[in-house]
């Protein structure tokens, strides 16, 4: 989960918020037990008790406008069932504390979708495997199922792609059937590029449509334009020291200066980068052959030792953000100058597509001294940024820009039709759009719908609503109170109006979510699963089945000493 | 003459205020929910990995140990290293302060040099058309939010007419030189024109209105009538006698404005993507980058306290009643 989704900005909600605000206001008068009972009224109210008021939390609008607005809409929709809630708007710090400490009833959260999420290990494994269902673990909803654990482990370990897809699809089926999270929407990634300067723009699936090496190798310069400017409001999480990396935006830029062994192509499939070839010897042994004649920016050759050094250093020194990527790595052995044999601690079928893609190769001759000199190499405040990647690092001015120059000796140099790449940090989206139209910005991402519409109507700008891999939802505590019964969770899912969220909040740019895997992930997405269309009657029926009733004023009641009857629905 | 005891008392107060600010800053950011790792909350983070990250930032030590270390480092001018980009905080924020001053000093000079003259003019023509419309315009520029005037200015001069750059201190890809290079670079000033004008427009209303109001009182004094009776030229009465006697509150307010100028304006710097102290502080707050936030807040507080001190000393020198009454209005 990441907190920095900025797909929608404040202004485009003027229409949406006016509508949702008015409705939420009305809901305050009618929902939460102040209106008519949506279902059967309790015969004897003494045998029932009202559900306690529940907290409906999201981050503040400034932190993430979309999640904030989803919170407003979803609260009103769920209150229609007679559940009393109070809206809680929190800062990112409180949000993460609440998740880690399991102190929430309804929490609006999301998975952001980097390209490596096309291999859906992250969304399926860390968020739902019961080994993480503990305080501080990543399974925040405390969903536990032996069947699911086994299925997701099979997915993780299975080398055969077809069988792996089947396991992943079964996982999605279990999740859709058991609703550990009320899934809401998969927003599209709104991006735009200036076509007067560069043509042949091709989007990579997901959030980072153009901010990736494969897309940049496709574009063609018009009239000799030789500078690409990526305009963004995202200040990098931590940069430039690689050993201090804590987020996706910085890691992406490290792949500009350092070559990973593998890159993902526009469709998200692994293609050779620093590695020329790789071959599984058995399910825990992988041989990787390096590309011949590669050099670092200072002329030193890239060798198998550098590869081994990088993986060992990350494992020994620890980079928490890359913890899960390095976890499966056991050790490595140098077979010859260009061949490294990786031995994994346990089978991990995503090792190539995730670990080898996310971990860039750093030069041993530069970082071994830093490791000796500092307690942790992340303390090097002015690191030598020499790598072997397609771009050389020139300058970083925090909060302003990062400048890269093309590495003329790189194997991709001929494919890159420009000389300089600038990551330019703006104060506002509006200024980026103005500069995109005038040509001072070459491309941008994380756009709001209003700005995207403006860009879409401008000549010389290509605006694309790129199917996203993000998944939004409402996290609920599966191990507490009424949430323990699957029927209660299903009822909630039937009460949530996903189409309204797409129409109002995303202005049509998005998909309804069935589970954490977006339709944009064509290979793994399973659409043959239990769906929960907006259906209040069905929701009421499910709640009545589970033993719930209402009082005269429409408040949901739970039988005293109620215990869940359906805690898990297994796969058929 | 400013007495030594008054000076000593004010100096003592300044030191106490600074100590209080430094201490409050330390605790303020640590009692807030979340820590630098909350930005990267992620299901794949194990408890150990979070602890590792906290240890990396030195946040695993007990609070009192952190406080002692913090005070000790502060005393020797070591404000730590940024969590976000690893640079030592003090040189970093001083560099950003220079960027901020490039905007705020010219804006404040324009405001405090032109403002009193305009205010004097309004007062002289009190209730005339110039005064009525002028005061209304001054109030409007004060009330108009900078993000709005800034965006309008960008739309007109950058995006539509395309005669001024839209933001930043230099074109994309230009590598910054030293602070001196930046201050004396034409490109910097080209980029600074719009934000300076917008900031000056916002700042100028206070000196205008303060001068106008004080001068209206002064104009009723006997010595003005005497000067008129003497046949002194109108402009001499207006600027040399009346305006000069109305300047004390403007001077006091001006000194404070210079103090605040070091902090710049988060909004102005955000609208114009200007890498000044205000925006740096905002970014750092969002990223829970404690060392930078602490450093930036400290620097801003220090400047405000310092210029408050200077304002008091200057005021008491200009008007000895101040040191007895402690206030100037």
From TrEMBL, chain B:
Belongs to the binding-protein-dependent transport system permease family. One of its GO terms (cellular component) is plasma membrane. It comes from Natrarchaeobius chitinivorans. It is found in: Cell membrane. The keyword Transmembrane applies. The chain crosses the membrane at residues 12-32, 101-124, 136-163, 183-202, 250-272, 292-311. Residues 97-311 form the ABC transmembrane type-1 domain. This is ABC transporter permease. GO terms for biological process: transmembrane transport.
């Amino acid at each position: 989960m990441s907190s920095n989704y900025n797909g929608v900005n404040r202004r485009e909600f003027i229409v949406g918020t006016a509508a949702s605000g008015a409705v939420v206001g009305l809901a305050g008068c009618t929902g939460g037990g102040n209106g008519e009972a949506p279902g059967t009224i309790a015969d004897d109210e003494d045998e029932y008790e009202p559900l306690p008021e529940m907290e409906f939390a999201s981050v503040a609008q400034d932190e993430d406008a979309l999640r904030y607005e989803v919170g407003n809409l979803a609260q009103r929709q769920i209150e229609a069932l007679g559940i009393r809630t109070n809206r809680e708007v929190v800062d990112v710090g409180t949000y993460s504390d609440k998740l880690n400490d399991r102190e929430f009833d309804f929490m609006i959260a999301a998975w952001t979708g980097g390209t490596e999420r096309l291999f859906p290990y992250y969304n399926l494994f860390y968020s739902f495997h019961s080994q993480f269902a503990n305080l501080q673990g990543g399974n925040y909803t405390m969903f536990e199922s032996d069947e699911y654990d086994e299925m997701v482990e099979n997915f993780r370990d299975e080398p055969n792609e077809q069988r792996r897809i089947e396991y992943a699809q079964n996982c999605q089926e279990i999740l859709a059937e058991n609703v550990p999270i009320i899934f809401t929407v998969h927003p599209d990634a709104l991006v735009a590029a200036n076509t007067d300067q560069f043509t042949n723009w091709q989007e990579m699936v997901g959030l980072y449509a153009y901010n990736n090496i494969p897309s940049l190798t496709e574009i063609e310069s018009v009239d000799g334009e030789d500078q690409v400017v990526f305009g963004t409001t995202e200040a990098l999480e931590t940069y430039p020291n690689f050993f201090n990396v804590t987020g996706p935006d910085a890691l992406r830029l490290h792949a500009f200066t350092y070559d990973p062994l593998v890159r993902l192509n526009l469709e998200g499939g692994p293609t050779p980068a620093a590695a020329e070839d790789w071959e599984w010897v058995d399910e825990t042994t992988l041989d990787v052959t390096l590309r011949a004649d590669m050099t670092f920016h200072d002329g030193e050759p890239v060798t198998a030792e550098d590869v081994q050094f990088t993986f060992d250093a990350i494992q020994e020194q620890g980079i928490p953000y890359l913890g899960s990527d390095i976890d499966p790595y056991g050790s490595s052995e140098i077979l010859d100058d260009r061949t490294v044999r990786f031995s994994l601690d346990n089978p991990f079928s995503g090792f190539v597509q995730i670990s080898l893609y996310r971990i860039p190769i750093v030069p041993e001759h530069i970082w071994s001294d830093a490791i000796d000199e500092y307690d942790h190499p992340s303390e090097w405040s002015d690191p030598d940024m020499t790598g072997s990647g397609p771009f050389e690092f020139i300058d970083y001015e925090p909060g302003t820009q990062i400048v890269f120059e093309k590495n003329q000796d790189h194997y991709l140099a001929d494919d890159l039709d420009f000389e300089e790449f600038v990551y330019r940090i703006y104060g506002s989206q509006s200024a980026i759009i103005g500069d995109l139209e005038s040509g001072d910005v070459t491309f941008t991402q994380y756009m709001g719908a209003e700005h995207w519409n403006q860009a879409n109507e401008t000549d010389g700008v290509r605006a694309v609503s790129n199917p996203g891999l993000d998944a939004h939802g409402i996290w609920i505590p599966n191990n507490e109170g009424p949430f323990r019964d699957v029927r209660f969770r299903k009822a909630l899912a039937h009460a949530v109006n996903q189409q309204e969220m797409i129409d109002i909040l995303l202005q049509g740019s998005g998909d309804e979510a069935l589970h954490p895997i977006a339709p944009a992930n064509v290979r793994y997405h399973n659409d043959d699963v239990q769906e929960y269309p907006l259906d209040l009657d069905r929701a009421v029926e499910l709640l009545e089945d589970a033993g719930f009733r209402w009082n005269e004023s429409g408040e949901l009641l739970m039988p005293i000493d109620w215990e869940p009857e359906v805690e898990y629905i297994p796969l058929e | 003459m400013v007495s030594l005891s008054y000076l000593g008392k004010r100096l003592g107060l300044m030191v106490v205020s600074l100590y209080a600010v430094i201490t409050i800053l330390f605790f303020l950011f640590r009692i807030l929910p979340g820590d630098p790792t909350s930005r990267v909350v992620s299901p794949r983070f194990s408890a150990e990995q979070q602890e590792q990250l906290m240890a990396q930032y030195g946040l695993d030590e007990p609070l009192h140990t952190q406080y002692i270390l913090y005070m000790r480092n502060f005393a020797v001018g070591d404000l730590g290293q940024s969590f976000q980009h690893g640079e030592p905080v003090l040189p970093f924020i001083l560099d950003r302060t220079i960027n901020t001053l490039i905007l705020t000093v010219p804006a404040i000079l324009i405001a405090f040099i032109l403002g009193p003259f305009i205010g004097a003019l309004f007062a002289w023509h009190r209730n005339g058309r110039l005064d009525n419309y002028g005061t209304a315009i001054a109030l409007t520029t004060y009330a108009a939010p900078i993000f709005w005037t800034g965006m309008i200015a960008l739309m007109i001069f950058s995006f539509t007419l395309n005669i001024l750059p839209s933001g930043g201190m230099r074109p994309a890809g230009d590598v910054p030189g030293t602070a001196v290079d930046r201050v004396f670079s034409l490109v910097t000033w080209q980029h600074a024109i719009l934000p300076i004008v917008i900031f000056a427009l916002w700042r100028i209303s206070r000196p205008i209105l303060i001068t106008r109001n004080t001068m209206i009182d002064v104009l009723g004094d006997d010595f003005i009538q005497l000067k008129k009776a003497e046949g002194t030229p109108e402009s001499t009465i207006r600027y040399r006698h009346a305006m000069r006697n109305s300047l004390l509150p403007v001077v006091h307010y001006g000194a404070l404005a210079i103090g605040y100028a070091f902090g710049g304006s988060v909004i102005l710097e955000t609208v114009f993507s200007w890498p000044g102290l205000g925006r740096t502080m905002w970014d750092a707050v969002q990223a829970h980058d404690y060392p930078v936030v602490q450093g930036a807040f400290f620097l801003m507080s220090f400047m405000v306290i310092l210029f408050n001190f200077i304002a008091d000393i200057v005021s008491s020198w200009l008007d000895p009643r101040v040191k007895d009454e402690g206030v100037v209005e």
